[in-house]
Automatic annotation (TrEMBL):
<dbReference type="GO" id="GO:0008422">
    <property type="term" value="F:beta-glucosidase activity"/>
</dbReference>
<feature type="signal peptide">
    <location>
        <begin position="1"/>
        <end position="28"/>
    </location>
</feature>
<keyword id="KW-0732">Signal</keyword>
<dbReference type="InterPro" id="IPR033132">
    <property type="entry name" value="GH_1_N_CS"/>
</dbReference>
<dbReference type="Pfam" id="PF00232">
    <property type="entry name" value="Glyco_hydro_1"/>
</dbReference>
<dbReference type="InterPro" id="IPR001360">
    <property type="entry name" value="Glyco_hydro_1"/>
</dbReference>
<keyword id="KW-0326">Glycosidase</keyword>
<dbReference type="InterPro" id="IPR018120">
    <property type="entry name" value="Glyco_hydro_1_AS"/>
</dbReference>
<feature type="active site" description="Nucleophile">
    <location>
        <position position="416"/>
    </location>
</feature>
<dbReference type="InterPro" id="IPR017853">
    <property type="entry name" value="GH"/>
</dbReference>
<keyword id="KW-0325">Glycoprotein</keyword>
<keyword id="KW-0378">Hydrolase</keyword>
<dbReference type="GO" id="GO:0005975">
    <property type="term" value="P:carbohydrate metabolic process"/>
</dbReference>
<protein>
    <recommendedName>
        <fullName>beta-glucosidase</fullName>
        <ecNumber>3.2.1.21</ecNumber>
    </recommendedName>
</protein>
<comment type="subunit">
    <text>Homodimer.</text>
</comment>
<comment type="similarity">
    <text>Belongs to the glycosyl hydrolase 1 family.</text>
</comment>
Length: 522
């Protein structure tokens, strides 16, 4: 794959790449070799991430039950923009060994993945455990250990068993019990191997897009109510499972357990405008603080600003009670401190300015409650999907916001970060994205004192990207979805990431050095 035409192309691209770097103010090269002046500590966790529904396929194989994404996409084939579904995806159900050898080739020692709830408990309930499903994940975990790669496992990455959705999904308070029952089985059958758990992935995106809106399944469109019920019971379910692990499993399994949240960076549109500064802060509190404050703040509970704002708006809209449920004193105490690390997924930034709320506005929504006008900066590059513009300093801003709000004691682990493009094998935009975002992470560590212990690139290979189907490409490896083999090929960014992991520094001149690397194999 390291053909001469590729090298020629890479030279042609250098000009635009360095323009991108200049535009973003990266002047971090210390010498002519192009290596970053700061480095990643020897014990820094480098990994790569995937999620079950996005790669596994095998939707009805080996005794697996249906998840909401299976059921909904079979009923509504037009939901995804290419009419696709997750029935086969990258076929990792069958090809996990080649996936693991690709992970190994990156040189990373950690692999973040999720378990499909309905592969373990086909109906969602714990009265029947699917032995084939347990065997499948144990085979993956053993293969990873054999290759000296540590699995980091998420219990819930959006693929809820359909029978639980029929009862209201995360808007049903009983979900707290069902999630605990599922986690109890999973800790019992895998806890001897798995030492790092995350309960949930990105509750904001799941609740906002799936319960408040219709961008994600279950597409409930219950704005102003659904997303808050979902958030509330996901938080309670998270804390229940944290304490289950802490009391029943941690004493002998000796692992860690946390949660993965997400946030865009909120850049004030006009930094000299006070109401824009307040709007940016309000956005972060409504998107991230609403989940992080109950878990990581000293005080616990929802942030005051979120609480008051939704209470006030609910009353002014004529409701007797707040649309955001209240925690009991006991629930606040159980949530506070219920995570061993701060898992954060980050992709992009937006410009924020104040959007005055019309107090008489009767149709409630999270957007209306937030009261922020969200725009993209047309100057920030957009190499692929429409929602993702490239603004590396936003990453540093977010890591600092987390540190400022929740302190330096809680270790931050970046559980996802990455960019989409048009699917090129010579993915210069992705090489540049990783270099520049990782450099901002180094600045946050070395200059700002943020306690960042790990980083997972999203994602190992092109995959099923939810509503975007297979049209949006985030992979370090290309996947040929036209071939039944789902052939994987490493992209340029895979070689670049492997070099960062090996050298513990970023090589800003990686692309220029390709000719000298021609004999190297990943
Ligand atoms: C690394 O480069 C940055 C950006 O030029 C500079 O602010 C910083 O002081 C440098 N650090 C070291 C250790 O040289
Ligand atoms: C909520 O309403 C109270 C009473 O009108 C007011 O003092 C407070 O500032 C409001 N809070 C927010 C966040 O809007
Ligand atoms: C600040 O921005 C808001 C809109 O976000 C605008 O209405 C207001 O006039 C601006 N204030 C100043 C002092 O520029
Ligand atoms: C399959 O191949 C066709 C023709 O080469 C191409 O247009 C299409 O994008 C490919 N589909 C996928 C999912 O890669």
């Amino acid at each position: 794959m390291r053909s001469s035409s590729r090298v020629a192309q890479s030279r042609a691209c250098l000009a635009s790449l360095s323009l991108l770097c200049l535009a973003q103010g990266v002047s971090a090269l210390v010498d002519s070799s192009g290596l970053s002046n700061y480095s990643f500590p020897e014990d820094f966790i480098f990994g790569v991430a995937t999620a079950a529904f996005q790669i596994e396929g095998g939707w009805n194989i080996g005794g697996k039950g249906e998840s909401i994404w299976d059921t909904y996409l079979h009923k509504h084939p037009d939901f995804t923009i290419d009419g696709s579904n997750g029935d086969v995806a990258t076929d990792s159900y069958h090809k996990y060994k080649s996936d693991i050898s690709n992970v190994k080739s990156l040189g990373v020692k950690y692999y973040r993945m999720s378990i499909s709830w309905s592969r373990i408990l086909p109906k969602g309930y714990d009265n029947f455990v699917n032995k084939d499903g347990v065997r499948y994940y144990r085979s993956i975990f053993k293969e990873l250990l054999k290759e000296n790669i540590t699995p980091v496992v998420t219990l819930f990455h959006w693929d809820l068993p359909t029978p639980l959705m029929d009862l209201g999904g995360w808007s049903n308070p009983k979900m707290v019990d069902y999630f605990e029952d599922y986690a109890n089985i999973v800790f019992t059958v895998f806890g001897d191997i798995i030492k790092t758990w995350a309960t949930m992935n990105e509750p904001h995106q799941h609740c906002y897009n799936g319960y408040g809106g219709d961008n994600f399944v279950p597409a409930l469109m219950s704005g102003g109510f659904g997303e808050y019920l979902c958030a509330h019971y996901m938080l309670l379910a998270h804390s229940r499972v944290y304490h289950l692990y802490d009391k029943k499993f941690r004493p002998h399994q000796k692992g860690k357990i946390g949660i993965t949240l997400d946030a865009f960076w909120a850049e004030p549109k006009d930094k000299s405008n006070h109401s824009d500064l307040l709007a940016a802060e309000r956005y972060l509190q409504m998107h991230l603080g609403i989940f992080a404050h109950p878990i990581y703040s000293l005080k616990g509970d929802y942030p005051d600003l979120v609480r008051e704002r939704i209470d006030n708006l609910s009353i002014s809209q004529g409701y007797t009670r707040s649309r955001l449920p209240y925690f009991s004193r006991k629930e606040i105490d159980l949530l506070r401190g219920s995570s061993d690390f701060f898992g954060i997924n980050h992709y992009t930034s937006y410009l924020m300015s104040d959007m005055p709320i019309d107090i008489d506005y009767r149709i409630p929504s999270w957007d209306h409650d937030t009261g922020v006008l969200i725009e993209q900066n047309p100057k920030w590059p957009k190499p692929g999907v429409d929602w993702l513009t490239v603004y590396p300093p936003g990453f540093r801003g977010l890591l600092n916001w987390i540190t400022k709000n929740y302190g330096k004691k809680i270790p931050i682990i970046v559980t996802e970060n990455g960019v989409s493009d048009l699917g090129e094998i010579n993915d210069y935009a992705r090489v540049s994205y990783y270099n520049n975002y990782l450099y901002q992470l180094l600045l946050a560590m070395h200059e700002d004192g943020c306690n960042i212990q790990g980083y997972f690139a999203w994602t190992l290979m092109d995959d099923f990207e939810w509503k975007d189907g297979y049209t949006v490409k985030f992979g370090l490896f290309h996947v040929d979805f036209n071939s039944t083999e789902r052939t994987r090929i490493p992209k340029l960014s895979a070689f670049n990431y492997a070099e960062i992991v090996r050298k513990r520094r970023i090589n800003f001149k990686y692309i220029e050095t390709i000719p000298s690397l021609q004999s190297n194999r990943l």
